[in-house]
Amino acid sequence: MSVVTVQLGQCGNQVGQELFDVLCSDALAGHRKTYSTASCERFFHLTSQGDLEARAVLIDMEPKAINSSMTKALKGGRWRYGEASHFSQKQGSGNNWANGFCVHGPRHKDAVEELVRREVERCDRLAGLMTMMSVAGGTGSGVGTYITQCLRDIYPASFILNHLTWPYGTGEVILQNYNSVLTLAHLYQLSDAIVVHENDTVHGICSRLLNIKAIAFTDINRVIAHQLGGVLQPALTPDSNGVYSLNPLGELVSALCCHPEYKLLSVSTIPQMPSSSVPYSSFSWTGLLKHLRQMLISNTKMEEGIDWHVRPPPASGRIRSVAGSSFNTSLANLLILRGKDVYCAETGNFEEATIYTPWLSPAEAFSAWKSPIPFNKYEKSATLVSNSQALLGPLEDIVRKAWNMFASR
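Above: the chain sequence. Below: its structure as tokens.
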């Protein structure tokens, strides 16, 4: 089953292009026909000329980001965007959420819906829709929220996954706190799941793990694309009977969003290192999963600087620990393992009841997907998608700043 991606605004189009680049290069690497076929069918359409064309619609109120993304895809030579799968105008939303949601969105609704409809009709079977946007600007957040609302009305039975890029805490846009609160308030009523990447966290990964000195948005987008690819590429679920999942978004949502009021998902990936170091590195599943579990319970964003002193509370203190600040309580976790000897990996430490809320059993709260195919040149890699308290801090900061701006007029 296929996923149609809707890229919105400058951020959504830049991250989307990097994501399709990762998906394509990973799918076509080595001799792995079944995996490659499953990945390409999910994210690409094979044209009559034998070219791979992304199942994507590009939307922005200015043409610059779209033109850049389409040009980069063509230069890569492995895949491309559809020649008529984009929509742009000459005037942006000015970082104004209301301008995007109330003006540009309704004005261009019909044209965008037609582009999405054409892309959906090219799918043999639709697994769902994925939108990619920033919550800080006007087009990505304002127009993106309006388009998500339209998609929910047109495809009421389809899964909708939103990917949001969270702004820097110090601020790129003066109105970013307003824009973020308005975007989340609307998307929470429309989406089945919301995957969030924080710019501050990804910037730290680029600096401390990848040793990048002059960090550009291209570097940040590549890290986001790598982590998303680890989630979205084909994997074997416990119920798949050796066949790659045919309903990737549905199984992701059912594994993680068991309560309709909790939809914010964070992503952690291990290992992450400069590409030049990968051929000379070796990892064990025991070591990788030990670090990833501690990252989860201590709410550490990367494997450097993990707080090893944080421990799960005793069973009698599980309810009280929900309000604590050091231990990160989870509602649900999805662990995706890829690479050599994946079936020897022991995941029992993620199934401890003390990690989760007391009203959900670990058997229902934890899921593990596996694939023996190495991902993006890493011999072994683990990605954890978590529905936990990890995003409460950034969310509370944005709400507080928005209220302070409102109170001070």
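The longest strand covers residues 330-339.
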